[in-house]
């Protein structure tokens, strides 16, 4: 169930060859077109792409609860869902870029973000409705994890601003999103392990929590706390290291931050959605 910060998590399975070829071609075509168009990537663009990360998480959660017909399901397993989402989000980004160049749209990130957010809301609402119909809807722990992640990420980012002000000034919204995304992944993983009794499927998080589980503190605060700290610290380190890259090449640097954010926020949001309909306190 848990996606975690993965080093080949269990459940990773390539789709059939026909799907794999189609996804590869779609991703390649969209990627090449984006390279040719070279849309600017700033802080708001990273947040806009974040809405599509939420869409991808929702699609994978729908796959896990069996919402797709058999012929469509291979597109939304892991890792196929990453390419499916990237292709669709990239196509929307291209559409917004062309429209902005033609003077039809005034803001690329606004269009990309609004479309992504609305699609994500529809999918999340459908997942919640599945929980209502099945009698498994349990919003408490997803809300706790989300609120806790916001607090921890805010404290961590403020701490970074006090020690490395320039990194925060340069990375801005994108840097804050990276820290929040990885904190969300860490905290939802910790909640899953310590509160909901979910089995961790990724080797690296499992090793970290096995270590913290052997500490004397495990009897009082569980084993997930160390993973939360590791995730937050790693996010702060990456933001600090990428600050110079963002300063030298804003678009490429922010695109790198978006990629880093995706591997934290995507799994974290996915965990929240599964908790919403499959796990209770």
Globally, the shape reads globular
Provide a count of the helices.
10
Report the sheet-strand fraction: under 5%
SSE order, one letter for each helix or strand: HHHHHHHHHH
Helical percent range? over 70%
Q: Tell how many strands the DSSP assignment holds.
A: 0
Alpha-carbon distance between the two ends: 16 Å
Low-confidence stretches: 1-10
Number of domains: 1
Quick check: average pLDDT? 90
Specify Rg, calculated over alpha carbons: 19 Å
Major sheet summary line? none
Class by SSE composition = mainly alpha
Can you describe this structure?
By secondary structure, the protein is mainly α. It has one domain. The protein has 10 helices and no strands. α1 runs parallel beside α3. The longest helix has 30 residues. It is globular and about 60 Å long. The N terminus is likely disordered.
Q: SSE layout and pairings?
A:
Blueprint: H1 17-37, H2 43-64, H3 80-101, H4 108-134, H5 140-163, H6 165-194, H7 203-213, H8 218-221, H9 225-248, H10 250-278
Helix pairs in contact: 1-3, 2-3, 2-4, 2-6, 2-10, 3-4, 4-10, 5-6, 5-9, 5-10, 6-9, 6-10, 9-10
């Amino acid at each position: 169930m848990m996606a975690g910060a993965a080093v080949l998590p269990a459940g990773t399975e390539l789709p059939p060859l026909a799907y794999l070829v189609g996804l590869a071609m779609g991703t390649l075509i969209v990627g090449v077109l984006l390279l040719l168009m070279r849309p600017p990537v700033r802080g708001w663009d990273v947040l806009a792409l974040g809405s599509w990360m939420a869409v991808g998480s929702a699609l994978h959660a729908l796959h896990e609860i069996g919402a797709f017909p058999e012929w469509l399901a291979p597109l939304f397993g892991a890792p196929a869902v990453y390419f499916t989402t990237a292709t669709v989000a990239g196509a929307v980004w291209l559409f917004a870029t062309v429209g902005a160049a033609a003077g039809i749209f005034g803001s690329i990130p606004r269009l990309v973000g609004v479309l992504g957010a609305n699609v994500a809301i529809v999918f999340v609402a459908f997942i919640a409705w599945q929980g209502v119909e099945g009698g498994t809807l349990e919003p408490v722990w997803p809300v706790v994890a989300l609120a806790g992640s916001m607090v921890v990420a805010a404290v961590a980012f403020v701490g970074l601003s006090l020690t490395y002000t320039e990194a925060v000034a340069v990375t801005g919204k994108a840097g804050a999103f990276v820290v929040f995304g990885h904190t969300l992944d860490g905290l939802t993983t910790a909640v899953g392990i310590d509160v909901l009794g979910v089995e961790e499927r990724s080797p690296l998080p499992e090793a970290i929590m096995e270590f913290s589980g052997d500490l004397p503190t495990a009897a009082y605060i569980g084993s997930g706390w160390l993973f939360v700290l590791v995730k937050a610290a790693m996010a702060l380190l990456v933001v600090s290291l990428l600050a110079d890259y963002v300063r030298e090449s804003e678009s490429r640097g922010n695109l790198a931050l978006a990629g880093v954010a995706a591997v934290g926020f995507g799994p974290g949001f996915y965990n929240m959605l599964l908790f919403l309909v499959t796990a209770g306190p």
